[in-house]
Amino acid sequence: MALQQHVEIPLGGQTVDPELPQRRLALVAEAAEGLLAAEDPARMVDELFGLIQSELRLDVFFNYRLEAGRLVLEAHGGLTPEQAAAGAELDLGQAVCGCAARDRQRFHVTGVQQSEDPLVAFVRDVGLDAYACTPLLHGDRLIGTLGFGRKWADRFTDDELSFLHTLCHFVALAKYRLMVEQELRAGIEQRDKLLGELNHRVRNALQLAVSVVRLEVTSAEDRAFSDALLRAADRIEVIASAHRPLYASDDPSTVAVADLLTAAGGGSIDGPLTVKDGAGAKLPIEQGVALALLVHTAFAEGGVPDQPASVQIAEQPGGTGVTLTGVRPETDALSGRLARALLRQLNGVVEPGADGLTIRISNATKG
């Protein structure tokens, strides 16, 4: 009989090696360590084959991965280029590996050279006389198959099969980890592309809004109305400037306070805004625009003429918030309706001091 499932027949005439169990256990440990730290799915199986080839006197291995309902040869050893090309792809149910994948069962093929079964034609043509194939599974998910063959004997022993199946379990686990990591990277890349496109479109929309408002200024006859439109255009421009740090954050739920202040420090502020931050403090991202507008209101609309604008960022005790010190706007710059609304949104308070105002914001998070 050519195909046997879970067959375990010892080879006769062999002397039992008393050090064999300990040596096999050491090999399993070394193989598991290498597999679980591997970065390349094909290379890790090739290295595994090199590790155990001498111990089990193996001649060949085939590693197939499942791809679009077919088995694709991902790694192999002991094959000529022509043999690898002949077995490059298999349908489920085709040859031994295809049957192992279709049935999700381990196959131990014995006496291959004496068999006329068409399922063993490929491994017979390769010159194998014994072949053990294991489906690589993670739960209900079929990842592929891994098989090992030898030419010098017509079967594997029960201990050898158990050893190979154990290694295949670690291979399946390692391959599943790499697949999940690849899927996560692809998801992150897709997210970054979508965020980049969203960022581009939002910024374009905000810039268009700024342009429309400024066009209205040129046609407005009432000076007070024109000034109000200009302030509105400035604030929209601040939102556009602050938009990039919101999407550049490594953590999609937070944004760096220093990045926001630097972005908001442009626009209509008279002179550069110096931002000093040694804590890497962050805010919840939903508070980012409010902070940018608050800083703009403080410096652009109430800044002290001819005095450099500088803000020092510090963490509050216990990481419960951040404190901005050295804010030097006019005394009543943050007493207006907009500033009060922004401070409420930020859970912030303003305290006057000799060196300027201090703004304390609650619910910030540490970077």
TrEMBL record:
<dbReference type="InterPro" id="IPR011495">
    <property type="entry name" value="Sig_transdc_His_kin_sub2_dim/P"/>
</dbReference>
<dbReference type="Pfam" id="PF07568">
    <property type="entry name" value="HisKA_2"/>
</dbReference>
<keyword id="KW-0808">Transferase</keyword>
<dbReference type="GO" id="GO:0005524">
    <property type="term" value="F:ATP binding"/>
</dbReference>
<keyword id="KW-0067">ATP-binding</keyword>
<keyword id="KW-0597">Phosphoprotein</keyword>
<dbReference type="InterPro" id="IPR029016">
    <property type="entry name" value="GAF-like_dom_sf"/>
</dbReference>
<dbReference type="GO" id="GO:0004673">
    <property type="term" value="F:protein histidine kinase activity"/>
</dbReference>
<protein>
    <recommendedName>
        <fullName>histidine kinase</fullName>
        <ecNumber>2.7.13.3</ecNumber>
    </recommendedName>
</protein>
<dbReference type="Pfam" id="PF13185">
    <property type="entry name" value="GAF_2"/>
</dbReference>
<feature type="domain" description="GAF">
    <location>
        <begin position="40"/>
        <end position="185"/>
    </location>
</feature>
<keyword id="KW-0547">Nucleotide-binding</keyword>
<keyword id="KW-0418">Kinase</keyword>
<dbReference type="InterPro" id="IPR003018">
    <property type="entry name" value="GAF"/>
</dbReference>
